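Session log. Operator J.P. requested a structure for one protein chain; no other inputs attached. Running the standard single-chain path with token output.
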Amino acid sequence: SVVYRGTDLRTNTKVALKYFLPDNYVNLENEAVILGQLEHPRIPQYLGIHQDATGVALVQELVVGRSLAS
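Structure written below.
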């Protein structure tokens, strides 16, 4: 998956969009169900699912920090 920074146009808040590859949509659905059940200050809040021409993305609260990529 790939994560982008975006803006929720309805609320004008910054969000994280985590796009999944088409062959990985089952993981997106599983992650959405699990995240929807969790409430913890160190876990970004699940806000919904977004679909556009690019694909399908999990929408989460944006948490700014350093990259985990090596």
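Operator note: Residues 25-37 form the longest helix (13 residues).
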